[in-house]
Specification:
CATH architecture of the largest domain in chain A: Orthogonal Bundle
Mean pLDDT of chain B: 85
Strand content of chain B: 15-25%
CATH class of the largest domain in chain A: Mainly Alpha
Mean pLDDT of chain A: 87
Strand order of the largest sheet of chain A: 1-5-4-3-2
Number of helices of chain A: 15
CATH architecture of chain B: 2-Layer Sandwich
Largest sheet of chain A: 5 strands, antiparallel
Order of helices and strands of chain B: HEHEHEHEEH
CATH superfamily of the largest domain in chain A: Cytochrome c-like domain
Radius of gyration of chain A: 26 Å
Number of domains of chain A: 2
Number of strands of chain B: 5
Order of helices and strands of chain A: HHHHHHHHHHHEHEEHEEHH
Low-confidence stretches of chain A: 1-6, 8-26
Number of strands of chain A: 5
Distance between the termini of chain A: 67 Å
CATH class of chain B: Alpha Beta
CATH topology of the largest domain in chain A: Cytochrome Bc1 Complex, Chain D, domain 2
Largest sheet of chain B: 5 strands, antiparallel
Distance between the termini of chain B: 48 Å
Number of domains of chain B: 1
Shape of chain B: globular
Oligomer: heterodimer
Shape of chain A: elongated
Structural class of chain A: alpha+beta
CATH superfamily of chain B: TT1751-like domain
Chain lengths: ~350, ~150
């Protein structure tokens, strides 16, 4: 005999779900809510910047069309921290754009036509007037947008003009207008103040646009790694392996800052598993440099190797920084993660051989 | 009818538990000062059944070494029985346990960032672990929401 779902059950369940579900039973989130949820952590609640660039700059909003903001949210900046919000639908992205627009002046009316300049001539002008901040190949400055937590020479970093996300979002007219207007509140001057003329500006725009025809820049490349962990089996006993780890880390200029059991602090003292021991170590100069590149890298900290013994086998393991690097979408961490990977690998090898 | 009900229940369960869109890092900004946010984070962690095992004072180490920084801490937390079970079954997860939330001050506000546990699902194709990652993800969102609502 087949059973039928009792009507009362469905009648009870549906309203319950409507009340519980974040998707139903309430109005779709508006621009402010979407901004707070998706953007404020980096760009600030009021758009004045943080890990992300400031958005509430009058000169920025006066010179970029909504299509630029929309495409930036949609495609992000590969390798430059700003993620692609590909899970937001178009109306949600537009709601965020409208909300950001409230920070400042209305969008300019800009042509979508291509500028017809001479990119070869533009290259020379770019090298003279733009490369000192934006890099010889338009790669921008290293690091995140603004950080208030650490001292820095410049209030804002120059964007990567060769980034595929930027090139997809910015029209020639927008780049041209930015060159002419400059950007008050940032180090970006008006190039007319530098003596450049209409033709020069068009040539620079065409040079910037020519980045699209080149292979993706190194700064847009993500590190590849097979595994989130580095794990070695030791040929020594547990205690010897622990001492080897400490000696190897110290030999690479790390300071041992702490040793503890893995479950210490989570179980009553005396009940920890003594066969899972962590060794924490730091190189504060390296930490300081890493934090200047990306203040989120505390997730890597402190450096740690764990020594584990199971069934008489001693294993030594650590995170794999190369696996984690892409999670940050900051290609300037790639080199650091490569170096950290090499340090971990060397320590693990030295401790286990 | 049974099949229809099954589908309905599956849909219902998905809707009821629908998390925020997946991303690789979870990051939120509290408009509270750093000390208030630190207290709120530790309370929220505890309220959700986890134990704060340690707080690493990165800023203290940096300033002691002569580097300038605002306040910067790493909060480690976990559930002992959960950590024990995972380390038994998936020792490769050990380097990521206990889980951590990083907090750093930006003037009068505080940023909090952690890995999205589901970012690791692809590497650990185990249904039980996937459920644990999903639970952690949901708990982390609730913990951070509680911190934001404590403002």
């Amino acid at each position: 005999m087949r059973r039928r779902a009792p009507g009362w059950f469905v009648a009870w369940l549906l309203p319950s779900l409507l009340a519980v579900s974040p998707l139903w039973g309430q109005a779709a989130p508006g621009g402010e809510q979407l901004y707070t949820r998706n953007c404020a952590a980096c760009h600030g609640s009021d758009g004045r910047g943080g890990v992300g660039v400031p958005l509430a700059l009058e000169d920025f909003l006066a010179n970029v069309p909504d299509s630029y903001l929309f495409a930036t949210i949609r495609h992000g900046r590969p390798g430059r921290v700003m993620p692609a919000f590909d899970r937001l639908n178009d109306s949600e992205v537009q709601a965020i754009v409208d909300y950001i627009r409230d920070f400042g002046p209305p969008a300019p009316e800009l042509s979508t036509a291509a500028v017809n300049g001479d990119p070869r001539r533009g290259e020379a002008l770019f090298a003279t007037h733009c490369a000192s901040c934006h890099g010889a190949r338009g790669e921008g400055s290293p690091g995140t947008g603004v950080t208030f937590s650490r001292p820095r020479d410049l209030p804002i970093l120059a964007p990567a003009l060769n980034n595929p996300g930027f090139l997809k979002a910015a029209t020639d007219a927008m780049i041209r207008r930015t060159l002419i207007q400059g950007r008050e509140g940032t180090p970006m001057p008006s190039v007319t103040d530098l003596g450049l003329e209409e033709r020069d500006i068009d040539d620079i725009v065409s040079f910037v646009r020519s980045f699209e025809d080149r292979p993706p820049p190194v700064t847009a490349i993500r590190l590849e790694a097979d595994s989130p962990v580095l794990m070695y089996t030791s040929s020594h006993d547990f205690e010897t392996t622990l001492e080897n780890v400490k000696r190897a880390a110290a030999g690479m200029n790390f300071r041992i800052i702490r040793e503890q059991y893995l479950d210490e602090g989570m179980v009553e003292p005396g009940r920890e598993n003594p066969q899972q021991q962590m060794i924490y170590f730091c190189n504060f100069q390296q930490i300081n440099e890493a934090l200047a590149i990306d203040p989120r890298v505390g997730l890597f900290m402190p450096c740690r190797v764990t020594v584990v013994e199971r069934d008489g086998v001693v294993q030594v393991m650590s995170i794999n920084p190369k696996y984690l690097s892409p999670l940050f979408n900051n290609s300037y961490l790639n080199q650091l993660c490569d170096e950290m990977y090499a340090f971990y690998r060397d320590i693990l090898e030295e401790a286990t051989l | 009818m049974r099949r229809a009900l099954t589908w309905f229940l599956l849909l219902a369960a998905w809707l009821a538990g629908a998390p925020l869109a997946a991303s690789e890092l979870i990051m939120v900004r509290s408009t509270q000062s750093f000390p208030e946010t630190m207290l709120a984070v530790q309370k929220a962690i505890s309220d959700h059944g986890y134990t704060v095992s340690r707080v690493q004072r990165v800023d203290v180490g940096l300033t002691a070494s002569g580097y300038e920084t605002d306040r910067y801490r790493v909060v480690f937390f976990g559930r002992a029985e959960e950590v024990q079970a995972i380390t038994e079954r998936h020792p490769e997860m050990i380097p990521y346990l206990p889980w951590k939330i990083v907090l750093f001050a930006e003037e009068e506000e505080t940023l909090m960032v952690t890995y999205d546990p589901e970012s690791f699902s692809a590497f650990f194709p185990d249904e039980a672990l996937a459920r644990t990652f999903a639970t952690w993800r949901e708990d982390i969102h609730h913990i951070l929401e509680q911190v934001l609502h404590a403002e």
